[in-house]
């Protein structure tokens, strides 16, 4: 059976561990590393999974899932390089970091799969895009897709698209939260109590997302179904267009893509 170690048990790392357990993985086949002893002890109590150090995780695990922040990758790779074996699969959940970085710093031939998940992983509704590095074969991508399928949906993309994926779905939940926050404020401005406005908007968001997922209709078709001639919705849409909301969203996602590319370039000379 495959032993999996999550290196960095923050929110995403913990969510993956929880999802793997719910999918039927045995606790004794899971490991994690965590810098803070108090949190490590808490996670072990909560999930029955052993916390350990990087060298032990590398020695015991068949799959190492790197779930640290991009700025923390250098010390981790320094610690990991002498410990990881060539048959170990390394899965990176680090935004902006290319597989080439791991391949340069780890022993020759180590297979690396790059993943861009997002925070709905904590509720089992992640959108994860996966790409294989030079040494990753179809069997590695299949295994990673199986693991991540326990916490949401998975798609395969060329690594050249990963920075765009990071901007689109990796950061995407924040855009929806931002929009919901603004709509709740609008409800308050119109005289609706905050709690009521929150319920109205969140359920509207859940319903709209379900329609998008289940109906098979294009977003334009669904929007037009709500937009009656000379009605309230078209007046609102006109204001959104007048204020350049569509253009602002396009620019925002391009900026996120650019930052993801920049994160990767910061490590090019390592």
TrEMBL record:
<dbReference type="GO" id="GO:0055129">
    <property type="term" value="P:L-proline biosynthetic process"/>
</dbReference>
<dbReference type="InterPro" id="IPR036291">
    <property type="entry name" value="NAD(P)-bd_dom_sf"/>
</dbReference>
<dbReference type="InterPro" id="IPR008927">
    <property type="entry name" value="6-PGluconate_DH-like_C_sf"/>
</dbReference>
<dbReference type="Pfam" id="PF03807">
    <property type="entry name" value="F420_oxidored"/>
</dbReference>
<dbReference type="GO" id="GO:0004735">
    <property type="term" value="F:pyrroline-5-carboxylate reductase activity"/>
</dbReference>
<keyword id="KW-0641">Proline biosynthesis</keyword>
<feature type="domain" description="Pyrroline-5-carboxylate reductase dimerisation">
    <location>
        <begin position="159"/>
        <end position="263"/>
    </location>
</feature>
<dbReference type="GO" id="GO:0005737">
    <property type="term" value="C:cytoplasm"/>
</dbReference>
<comment type="function">
    <text>Catalyzes the reduction of 1-pyrroline-5-carboxylate (PCA) to L-proline.</text>
</comment>
<keyword id="KW-0521">NADP</keyword>
<comment type="pathway">
    <text>Amino-acid biosynthesis; L-proline biosynthesis; L-proline from L-glutamate 5-semialdehyde: step 1/1.</text>
</comment>
<feature type="binding site">
    <location>
        <begin position="67"/>
        <end position="70"/>
    </location>
    <ligand>
        <name>NADP(+)</name>
    </ligand>
</feature>
<keyword id="KW-0560">Oxidoreductase</keyword>
<dbReference type="InterPro" id="IPR029036">
    <property type="entry name" value="P5CR_dimer"/>
</dbReference>
<keyword id="KW-0963">Cytoplasm</keyword>
<comment type="similarity">
    <text>Belongs to the pyrroline-5-carboxylate reductase family.</text>
</comment>
<dbReference type="Pfam" id="PF14748">
    <property type="entry name" value="P5CR_dimer"/>
</dbReference>
<keyword id="KW-0028">Amino-acid biosynthesis</keyword>
<protein>
    <recommendedName>
        <fullName>Pyrroline-5-carboxylate reductase</fullName>
        <ecNumber>1.5.1.2</ecNumber>
    </recommendedName>
</protein>
<dbReference type="InterPro" id="IPR000304">
    <property type="entry name" value="Pyrroline-COOH_reductase"/>
</dbReference>
<dbReference type="InterPro" id="IPR053790">
    <property type="entry name" value="P5CR-like_CS"/>
</dbReference>
<feature type="domain" description="Pyrroline-5-carboxylate reductase catalytic N-terminal">
    <location>
        <begin position="3"/>
        <end position="96"/>
    </location>
</feature>
<dbReference type="InterPro" id="IPR028939">
    <property type="entry name" value="P5C_Rdtase_cat_N"/>
</dbReference>
<dbReference type="InterPro" id="IPR033379">
    <property type="entry name" value="Acid_Pase_AS"/>
</dbReference>
